[in-house]
Amino acid sequence: MATIKEIAKKAGVSYSSVSRALNQQSGVRPEVRKKVLEIARELNYHPHSSAKALVQNRIGVLGVIISRTSEFAFQNPYFSHMLLGLSSVANDMGYHLMLVINQQQSYASLYHSHLVDGIVVLANRIDDPYLPELAKDGVPAVVVPGFPDSWEFDLPSANSENYQDVYRAITYLLNLGHRDIAFILGGMNSIYSLVRLEAYKAAFRDKGLEYKDKYLKESDFSKTDAFRLMGELLDLPDPPSAVISINDATTPGVLHQINSRGLRIPEDISVVAIGCSDLVDLTDPPLTTIKVPVIQVGRAAARVLIELIETGDCRERHVVIPSAFVVRESTGVWPSR
Questions:
Q1: In terms of Cα–Cα distance, which of 141, 138, 134, 133 is closest to 158?
Q2: Which residue ranges does the record assign to the HTH lacI-type domain (predicted)?
Q3: Residue 227 needs a FRET pair 20 to 30 A away by CA distance; which of 10, 132, 177, 244 works?
Q4: For residue 264, which phi and psi values (nearest 5 degrees)?
């Protein structure tokens, strides 16, 4: 592997200039920094992470907090995809991840105890009691997803197009003739549920139509609960003609309930799934999907956090990654012909 000495020799500058350029320190002319970084890439130079941390007085660790139980975290593809995105950028930048699940004490204490250089909180819950302290103490931190503008504290965030995704999907179903559209959400302390519910309502409102509360169901984000709630919806005297499932964990329960009753998709009921897994490629028929770019969101969160750690600021505080609305065979015109 190349050394700083070799880079210095090829660049025609001093050892100390190369060190400052590689460690993003001041005292290096822009053209020299650019040349050094280009040569480092050319020579495939990778600094030893512990040595880099020692020079910069950093630990070289990013804390990742999942404010959910272990069972919930490891059964939901969302978190594995998120960790894949976070780790890919962290590893490239010489950082390791420390995973903390269901933390029941101050998040900021991890930073103040010098266990981590910064924190990514996979937040979700608007009533999380430990988030305000991060902003108050100036801890380098990024939340996923972002919080509403009305929230008391402003923390950097990375997110997908949660509002636009659902608005687009509901509008699509309304244009197909559906009016009785069910939505299996999570709890109303979930940012995802709150934002997506607002989009659901807005899509109806902008079409001059009224939605019906009886088609809105709060789940605990599990397959079992989604199965139960889908059963309640199908037992209504006027069951929905379409349903949206909020994530990869709830969708199997929705499909299981529909299939157990011998209903046809989309002839009897249309289905739209929100998620990041490949489940949609394995169903029959293939599901119309809001494909959430969770890996890319994880990468963005890591980049923002590392920039905060290394420069004290970030050029873009709230990163939003576009999603994809993929129409497949699980949605159709209503009433079906």
A1: 141
A2: 2-56
A3: 177
A4: -100, 140
Residue linked to tokens 């046809």? 264
* Other residues' Cβ atoms within 10 Å of the Cβ of residue 99: 14
Say which amino acid occupies 59. Answer: I
Q: DSSP assignment of 255-274, as one string?
A: HHHHHHTT--TTTT-EEEEE
What separation in angstroms does the CA of 136 have from each of 212, 275, 282, 307? Answer: 41, 33, 46, 19
Q: How many other C-beta atoms can be found within 10 angstroms of the C-beta atom of residue 89?
A: 19
Over pLDDT 90: what percentage of the chain?
Answer: 58
Provide the pLDDT for residue 333: 96
Q: In terms of Cα–Cα distance, which of 102, 109, 104 is closest to 137?
A: 109
pLDDT in tens, 62-85: 999 998 878 777 878 899 999 999
Strand order in the sheet with 157-160: 96-101, 61-66, 118-122, 141-144, 157-160, 318-321
Is residue 48's pLDDT more than 60? no
How far is 275 from 208, CA to CA, in rounded Å? Answer: 29
